[in-house]
C-alpha cells in the first residue's frame, strides 16, 4: 500500500460520529428542550433506538466507553429498572408510535443482562414503538460472558446481528490490555450464535495496542477470517488517559509509534482486501452482498454513533446513562454519572444533562463531513444547494485543503473534493477542516491515524 503524509500528521481530531461533536455539547440544552424536540417526531418517519448498558464483569484497560466493572448483578438489575422508566418517559413525550428500523444494544456489555431483564427491556420497547418487519436489531457481545441462556434471550428479543469484541487474538497483546480471550472461545460463540439463527456476525478489532506488531495484526486477521464474519470494524486504539483513568494501567512504552500504527493499519487493509472484504470508509470492512457493502455501492452509506451504518433514519433516541440522541433540532446527552441519571429518572424527568441545538450551517457542515467519511468525496455545490448555502462560504476550507495536504492525498477540483486511497488514513483530518468548533476551541482528541 502506498504511504503518504499530511502536513499535520499527528493532529488529534474527532471520530466524527456526530457534528457538532460531543465535546461541544453544553448544559444550556435541558430536559425541557429534549421534551419539546421529542414532540416534533412524526410517526411516519423512521426512527432508530440505542440502549446503553454501562456494566462489564471486568475493565479492559484499553476501553474508551462509559462503563464500570461489577461482579454483582444487583447494580445491573437496579439500572434496568431505571432504564425501563426512562424508556416509558421518553415514549410518553412523543405522543405517537414511530416506526423503528434499527435498534442497537451497546455498552459496556449488553449481554451481562439476565434473560429476564433483556426480555423486559425488549418487550417495553416493542410496546412503546412500532418495529419494522425488517428492522435490524444488533447487539455488542463480550464472548467471555456469553451463555446459551443469553443467546436464547437474544433470539426471543429479535436480535439478528451480533458484534463480537475481539480486538486481538495474540495472548501477549491480550495480557497487555487485560482481556484474555482465547480463539476457541470466540469460535464457540460464533458457532452457537449461528446455530441459534443469528447469522449476521461482526468482529471488532483494534490496532495500535500495547505490545502489538504488524505480525500480530496479520495473524489476528488470519484467525478472524477463518470464522467468516460478515463485517469487521477495525479501530485505532485511542490512548486518552486524561479522560479514561484506567488507561494509565497501560505501559506507555509498549505503545506502537505513529509510524508503526500506520503500518499496522495498512497491513490490516491489505490482508482483508486480499481475502475479499470491501473497504468501507475509514475503518470498516464488509463482504460483497452484506448490506453495508451494498449501501456503499449505492451511495446510501451513513454514519452515526455506532459508526458506519445502513440506517437512513434522521432521528436516533438513546436510552441509558451517557446515551446520546439525535433529532432534527440537535443532540442531547443523558447524564454520564449513574447517580444523577438515576435521580433524574426517579423524579419523573428526562435524564438530559447537555446537548446542542444545530443551525443551518451546522447541518450543512455535518452533511459535508458525513459524505467525506462515507464516500471519501463531496461536491460542495450539491451540498450547499440542499442547505441554501453557496459553496463560496467554504473558500477558506478549500484553500486549506489545497495548501495543507500533499498532492496525492486530497484532490480539489473547483468545489469537488476527493480523498484518494493514499489519503484514506487522514480522512478524519480532512473532515476537521470543516469543523468550525474544533478551530474555535481546540479539545484533546485521539490521533487521526
CATH class of the largest domain, named Alpha Beta
CATH topology type of the largest domain: pyruvate-formate lyase- activating enzyme
The CATH architecture of the largest domain would be Alpha-Beta Horseshoe
Strand order of the largest sheet: 9-10-8-7-6-5-4-1-13
- CATH-wise, what's the superfamily of the largest domain? tm_1862 like domain
**What's the average pLDDT?**
93
Radius of gyration using CA atoms only: 21 Å
Termini gap: 15 Å
Helix amount: 25-40%
Number of domains: 2
Number of strands: 19
What structural class do helix, strand and pairing data support? alpha/beta
The major beta sheet can be summarized as: 9 strands, mixed
Note the overall shape. Answer: globular
Which oligomerization state do the chains in this entry correspond to?
Answer: single chain
Amino acid at each position: 500500500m502506498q504511504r503518504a503524509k499530511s502536513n499535520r500528521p499527528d493532529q488529534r481530531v474527532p471520530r466524527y460520529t456526530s457534528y457538532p461533536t460531543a465535546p461541544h455539547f453544553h448544559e444550556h440544552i435541558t430536559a425541557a428542550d429534549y421534551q419539546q424536540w421529542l414532540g416534533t417526531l412524526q410517526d411516519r418517519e423512521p426512527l432508530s433506538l440505542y440502549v446503553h448498558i454501562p456494566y462489564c464483569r471486568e475493565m479492559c484497560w484499553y476501553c474508551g466507553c462509559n462503563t464500570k466493572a461489577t461482579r454483582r448483578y444487583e447494580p445491573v438489575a437496579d439500572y434496568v429498572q431505571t432504564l425501563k422508566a426512562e424508556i416509558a418517559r421518553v415514549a410518553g413525550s412523543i405522543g405517537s408510535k414511530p416506526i423503528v428500523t434499527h435498534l442497537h444494544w451497546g455498552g459496556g456489555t449488553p449481554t451481562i443482562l439476565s434473560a429476564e431483564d433483556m426480555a423486559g427491556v425488549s418487550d417495553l420497547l416493542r410496546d412503546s414503538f412500532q418495529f419494522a418487519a425488517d428492522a435490524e436489531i444488533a447487539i455488542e457481545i463480550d464472548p467471555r460472558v456469553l451463555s446459551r441462556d443469553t443467546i436464547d434471550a437474544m433470539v426471543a428479543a429479535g436480535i439478528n446481528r451480533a458484534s463480537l469484541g475481539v480486538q486481538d487474538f495474540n495472548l501477549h497483546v491480550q495480557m497487555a490490555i487485560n482481556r484474555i480471550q482465547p480463539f476457541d472461545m470466540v469460535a464457540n460463540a460464533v458457532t452457537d450464535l449461528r446455530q441459534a439463527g443469528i447469522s449476521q456476525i461482526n468482529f471488532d478489532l483494534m490496532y495500535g495496542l500495547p505490545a502489538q506488531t504488524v505480525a500480530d495484526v496479520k495473524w489476528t486477521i488470519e484467525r478472524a477470517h477463518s470464522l467468516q464474519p460478515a463485517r469487521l470494524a477495525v479501530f485505532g486504539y485511542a490512548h486518552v488517559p486524561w479522560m479514561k483513568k484506567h488507561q494509565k494501567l497501560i505501559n506507555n512504552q509498549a505503545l506502537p509509534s505513529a509510524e508503526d500504527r500506520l503500518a499496522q493499519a495498512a497491513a490490516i487493509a491489505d490482508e482483508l482486501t486480499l481475502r475479499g472484504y470491501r473497504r468501507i470508509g475509514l475503518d470498516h470492512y464488509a463482504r460483497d452482498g452484506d448490506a453495508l457493502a451494498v449501501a456503499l455501492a449505492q451511495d446510501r452509506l451513513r454514519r452515526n454513533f455506532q459508526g458506519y451504518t445502513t440506517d437512513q433514519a434522521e432521528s436516533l433516541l438513546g436510552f441509558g446513562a451517557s446515551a446520546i440522541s439525535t433529532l432534527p433540532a440537535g443532540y442531547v446527552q443523558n447524564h454520564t454519572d449513574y447517580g444523577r441519571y438515576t435521580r433524574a429518572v426517579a423524579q419523573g424527568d428526562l435524564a438530559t444533562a447537555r446537548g446542542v441545538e444545530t443551525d443551518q450551517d451546522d447541518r450543512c457542515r455535518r452533511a459535508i463531513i458525513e459524505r467525506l467519511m462515507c464516500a471519501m468525496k463531496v461536491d460542495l455545490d450539491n451540498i450547499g444547494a440542499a442547505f441554501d448555502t453557496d459553496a463560496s462560504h467554504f473558500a477558506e476550507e478549500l484553500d486549506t485543503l489545497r495548501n495543507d495536504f500533499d498532492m496525492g492525498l486530497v484532490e480539489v477540483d473547483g468545489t469537488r473534493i476527493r480523498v484518494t486511497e493514499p489519503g484514506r488514513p487522514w480522512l478524519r483530518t480532512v473532515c476537521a477542516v470543516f469543523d468550525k468548533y474544533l478551530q474555535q476551541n481546540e479539545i484533546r482528541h485521539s490521533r487521526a491515524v
